[in-house]
Structures are given as structure tokens and as C-alpha cells.
């Protein structure tokens, strides 16, 4: 009986200590004199990892909306015990995303020492990031992007051919097959044939490499973001070893073949091979940059295409207007889809921009404070090492910037309306020094693919597609839950 009583006393004391520690930790933003949303022990402001049924980007947008409703310009939140700084007022956001001296780093996701593929541009920090960004930038100019057009167009032909035989299609997977072929060709010089082969090794490994927000993935993400050195010490992996080895071996084989045979193509990996000749990059560096180029370009462009088709199927008058523009412009180019003809399709750009407003492929991004930062005109100081979140989805669906934000309205992005848009109210590719380096290529492949589809087919909602689409809770991207099913009819 005494032992039971002592055990209960011990448990009670441990619980009290646990609660006291959490309450002290959760007063961090109070001590910093910053408004904050009340956290819950032990998960902070995000839902229970074990029960969450919401997309992480949507959860972040909801926290942004709560702060906005309270009239805050910025505020603090917690993920588990870790304090996160969040912007609300666009002037505060602008100060940070354009400040290269205080917020140029991102949270580390992964273990470069164990998994060299993680030593890519998105994970690099400080001088390493600046060096790599400088080296890679020439490979993403408009001229370089234009040189890849023929590769993209070949993949578009396969896409159109595939859809001709379908009466109903799940467009997210369809578009992923297209972008897998495009990026596989542009990044690795491979003919992936994703449209034809459902079980190709390349396709299987790329799907497994895509980041998720399963329970284990969320815990690893949180752990690495806050304890990168300890995570490296424990040799924790975030990519399955066979997936990691597949991509590493693939890059080794491509480089060895091209250098041995003098083979050359107008693709991304060739640009890196040319840099390697000067001794500026290793094979591991090339593998890492090619890996992130592939994953980022595959998912984001596929989602842009899929959500655009979804909105066009819901808004048939917009679909017809876009098809009319495509046909009218192509008539001046003898019916050919070419780089120049796409540049003349201005309404097309408005449609894609509105899709990225409503469904930004990456719903939030992060930064890390690299040295103490004093908030302008306030006493608050953001300490070095503090994580910062930019709630892109929340900003894009803010009624103060976009009245009736759930409505799909390409007119928001007319030339006249864009001039009235506040700075940083539209940031689907981020902003400032850390903005997406592959933006041009991502937009080009999406536009080429959509052009072929909308020109040749009429899309309408299938009964499998719910009236209200939810974001997939298992994805870090703005991926649709359950897919997007559309009926397809050949245009006469």
C-alpha cells in the first residue's frame, strides 16, 4: 500500500513539474512582449499530431486568420514547445522577406551528412547558400528556360494523346505523370514514359521521395527543424535508403555517360556538369540540386495544372473564354504551340495566377532569424535562431486583399488590378532572395501542358468530385484530398 501511495505521489509530482515547465515555456512570447495565440499542452497551437485531419498549410492559414481577426500586425505561436513568429501585416512581411541580412536561412529539413541529397539549395544556409544560388542562377534565366521548350512540348504531345482515350480522368495524377516526364527529361535527360508505364521504377521512386506530413514525418520535420545537430548525430533518415541510392546512382550514371561519350543536351543537369568542369561542384552537389529541382518542379507544377482544370470545370464560361484566346492566338502561328505564342496569351496568365492565389502549391514557407532583429517602431526583438513562418495560403485568401476570396476570378490579375495589389499580397513563389529559382520553368511547363489540354478537350466535374474540396492532410503541398475527377470530351 505504501509503495502504491509513493508511486501516486511520484506520478502527481512529475505531472505538476511537467505542466509547470510547459507553462513557463509557453510564456516565451509574453516575455518578448509579443501578442500570441494561447497554446495547448503539449502540442502548442497545432492540433494533436496523432489525430490531425487537416492539411498543415490550412492549419497555418487558420492561425493567421485568428491573428488577423484580433487586429494584430504579427504574433507568436508554438509547435510543440518551439516558438514560431508569424507575420500578419504585409509591411512586416515585406521587411523580412526582402531583408537578406536577418532572414536569409530556412529551417533544415533532413540530414545532409547521412543523406547527401539533402544538401540542396533549399537546405543550404549562409555563405553556402549564396555560393550555390550564384552558381545555379544562370541555369534558370529566361533564355535557358526557352531552350527547354522543345522537351516540354514533346511531353505535351504524349499528354494529349493519353487523354484522347479517356472519358473520365483523375487530373492530379495525370498532371504528375506529365511533370514527371518533363522534369525527368529536363533534369536527368531521361525518357520516363510515365504516361505509358504505371510501374516504371523512376515513377515509383519519385512518388516515394515526395515529402508527406504523416505522424512520423511531422515528428522528424519538427525534430530536425529544432535540433539539426542532434538529428545528424543520431543519423536519422528522412528518405528511405533505397530511394536515396536510386537517385544518387542515377546522377552518377548520367554524368559518367555524358562525360565519357561527349554527349550534351539543353537540360538542367548539363548546366551543372559544365559548372563541375571548373571544379566548383562535386557529383554529390549535382545530385542534391537535381533532386530538389525534380521534386519541387514535379509537385508544384502538377498541382497548378490540376487545380486550374478543376476551376475551369466549375466555371465553364472561363474555360470557354480561355479556349477562345488559345485558338485565336494559335491561329496567328499556324496552329503551332510555341514559346512565343504562349507569351501572347495574357488571359491564360490571369487564370493561372488566380489558381495560385486560391491554391498556392506551397501553402506556407519558413525562415530562420540569423541575427537578432528589432521589429521596426516596436520594442520587440526576434532572437537569433527563432523560426519564422510565412502563411501564404492565409494571405492569398484574406478578404481584405481579395474580396470574396473563395470565388475564382481571373480578373483580379488584369494589368490594371495588379497595379493596385499591395506588395507581398501575392507570393506563390515566395519573395526576396529566397524566392523560387525555378519559377519560370515551373510556369512554362504548366502552361504548355494546360494549353494542349484546354485547346483539345472540354472538362466538366465528375460525380466523384465533391462540391467542396479539402486539402490532403498527408501532404505538405496544397494537394486535393481524394483527387480531382473530371469528365473529358473532345472539342470539335
From TrEMBL:
Pfam families assigned: p450
UniProt membrane topology term: Peripheral membrane protein
GO cellular component: endoplasmic reticulum membrane
Cofactor(s) needed for function: heme
A Gene Ontology molecular function term of the record: iron ion binding
Binding residues for heme: 436
UniProt KW keywords: Endoplasmic reticulum, Heme, Iron, Membrane, Metal-binding, Microsome, Monooxygenase, Oxidoreductase, Transmembrane, Transmembrane helix
InterPro entries per record: Cyt_P450, Cyt_P450_CS, Cyt_P450_E_grp-I, Cyt_P450_sf, Insect_CytP450_Detox
Subcellular location: Endoplasmic reticulum membrane; Microsome membrane
Residue ranges crossing the lipid bilayer per the database entry: 6-26
SUPFAM superfamilies: Cytochrome P450
UniProt superkingdom: Eukaryota
Xref: PANTHER family: CYTOCHROME P450, CYTOCHROME P450 6A16, ISOFORM B-RELATED
Sequence similarity: Belongs to the cytochrome P450 family.
Protein name: Cytochrome P450
Organism (species): Zophobas morio
Taxonomic path: Eukaryota, Metazoa, Ecdysozoa, Arthropoda, Hexapoda
Amino acid at each position: 500500500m505504501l509503495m502504491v501511495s509513493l508511486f501516486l505521489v511520484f506520478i502527481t509530482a512529475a505531472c505538476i513539474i511537467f505542466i509547470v515547465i510547459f507553462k513557463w515555456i509557453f510564456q516565451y512570447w509574453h516575455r518578448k512582449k509579443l501578442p500570441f495565440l494561447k497554446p495547448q499542452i503539449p502540442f502548442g497551437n497545432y492540433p494533436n499530431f496523432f489525430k490531425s485531419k487537416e492539411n498543415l498549410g490550412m492549419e497555418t492559414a487558420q492561425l493567421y486568420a485568428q491573428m488577423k481577426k484580433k487586429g494584430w500586425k504579427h504574433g507568436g505561436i508554438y509547435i510543440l514547445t518551439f516558438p514560431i513568429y508569424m507575420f500578419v501585416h504585409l509591411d512586416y512581411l515585406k521587411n523580412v522577406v526582402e531583408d537578406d541580412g536577418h532572414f536569409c536561412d530556412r529551417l533544415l529539413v533532413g540530414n545532409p551528412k547521412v543523406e547527401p541529397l539533402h544538401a540542396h539549395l533549399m537546405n543550404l544556409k549562409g555563405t553556402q547558400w549564396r555560393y550555390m544560388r550564384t552558381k545555379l542562377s544562370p541555369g534558370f534565366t529566361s533564355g535557358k528556360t526557352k531552350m527547354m521548350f522543345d522537351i516540354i512540348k514533346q511531353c505535351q504531345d504524349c499528354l494529349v494523346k493519353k487523354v484522347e482515350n479517356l472519358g473520365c480522368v483523375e487530373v492530379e495524377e495525370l498532371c504528375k505523370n506529365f511533370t514527371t516526364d518533363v522534369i525527368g527529361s529536363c533534369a536527368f535527360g531521361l525518357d520516363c514514359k510515365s504516361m505509358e508505364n504505371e510501374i516504371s521504377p523512376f515513377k515509383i521512386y519519385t512518388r516515394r521521395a515526395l515529402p508527406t506530413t504523416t505522424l512520423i514525418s511531422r515528428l522528424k520535420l519538427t525534430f530536425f527543424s529544432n535540433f539539426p545537430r542532434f538529428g545528424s548525430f543520431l543519423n536519422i533518415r528522412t528518405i528511405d535508403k533505397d530511394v536515396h541510392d536510386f537517385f544518387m546512382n542515377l546522377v552518377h550514371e548520367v554524368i559518367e555517360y555524358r562525360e565519357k561519350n561527349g554527349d550534351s543536351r539543353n537540360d538542367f543537369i548539363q548546366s551543372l556538369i559544365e559548372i563541375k568542369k571548373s571544379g566548383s561542384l562535386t557529383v554529390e552537389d549535382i545530385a542534391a540540386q537535381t533532386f530538389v529541382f525534380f521534386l519541387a518542379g514535379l509537385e508544384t507544377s502538377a498541382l497548378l495544372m490540376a487545380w486550374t482544370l478543376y476551376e475551369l470545370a466549375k466555371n465553364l464560361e472561363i474555360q470557354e473564354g480561355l479556349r477562345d484566346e488559345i485558338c485565336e492566338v494559335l491561329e496567328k502561328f499556324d496552329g503551332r504551340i510555341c514559346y512565343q505564342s504562349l507569351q501572347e496569351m495574357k488571359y491564360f496568365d490571369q487564370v493561372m495566377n488566380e489558381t495560385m492565389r486560391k491554391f498556392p502549391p506551397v501553402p506556407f514557407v519558413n525562415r530562420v532569424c540569423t541575427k537578432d532583429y528589432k521589429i521596426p517602431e516596436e520594442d520587440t526583438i526576434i532572437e537569433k535562431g527563432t523560426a519564422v513562418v510565412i502563411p501564404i495560403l492565409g494571405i492569398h485568401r484574406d478578404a481584405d486583399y481579395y474580396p470574396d476570396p473563395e470565388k475564382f476570378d481571373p480578373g483580379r490579375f488584369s494589368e490594371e488590378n495588379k497595379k493596385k495589389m499591395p506588395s507581398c499580397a501575392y507570393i506563390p513563389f515566395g519573395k526576396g532572395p529566397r524566392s523560387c529559382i525555378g519559377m519560370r520553368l515551373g510556369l512554362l511547363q504548366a502552361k504548355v501542358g494546360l494549353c494542349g489540354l484546354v485547346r483539345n478537350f472540354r472538362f466538366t466535374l465528375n460525380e466523384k468530385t465533391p462540391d467542396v474540396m479539402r486539402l490532403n492532410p498527408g501532404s505538405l503541398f496544397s494537394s486535393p484530398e481524394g483527387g480531382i475527377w473530371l469528365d473529358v470530351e473532345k472539342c470539335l
